[in-house]
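User: Some background: our group keeps a shared notebook of sequences we're curious about, and every so often someone picks one and asks for a predicted structure to add to the entry. Today it's my turn. The entry only has the sequence so far, pasted here. Could you supply the structure so I can complete it?
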Amino acid sequence: MMILGEKSKINFDWGTLLKDEFHKPYFIKLLKILRIEYNCFICFPKRKNIFFCLKYCPFQRLQVVILGQDPYHKENQADGLCFSVPDGVPIPASLKNIFTEVNNCWNLKRNCYPISGSLIHWAKQGVLLLNSILTVRKGFPLSHKNIGWELFTDQIIQIISNQKKNIVFLLWGKYAQRKIPLINSFHNHYVLKTSHPSPFSAHMGFFGSKHFEKTNNFLKKIGKKTIFWNFWH
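Assistant: Of course. Here's the predicted structure to add to the notebook entry:
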């Protein structure tokens, strides 16, 4: 698939599942808006990284969905995976809280963090790190809200929900939890809800939620390979 004049990074199986979506009027309009945005302003992530979440987590391997809202809007932070940042970039506060809760699940040192904030390690194991909005203008959070991305990513959630069974959905915060109606209740999906890992709300349920441990217990119960969450140990 071509987007914004470059070949986008999207796994073949996702390309097949979403091929009809790419030709719908809303998506064609979305591409036109993005071309203007990327040509006139600094936008994140880089054009070639917009679909990185679909590159690193093929549909066939997918076991867990973590849903974010939109990419980081500061320089060099957004890498196409929700909550993740590229190697060498300081770890944002929400991601630090995520790592802290991983440590809590296995009684590891609370303030022990990985050198890198990249979550590619999770994606390659079958964790889809999906933002609802896949792009943003520098310095303006939610600047690409309601231009079409939500329609596209809602379709991704519905495809997963309807064509897979026993998927774990980690829904952190009210925005992510609004997507619950898209999840097929007849396919034995495991939906875990709590507050957002932001410093403003992590203490309201995220810390102590044990979502990473509960996810692995569920995967083990149904005979699937568990996720190696604490890759820095």
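Suggested note for the entry: The first strand starts at residue 2 and ends at 3. The first helix runs from residue 12 to 17.
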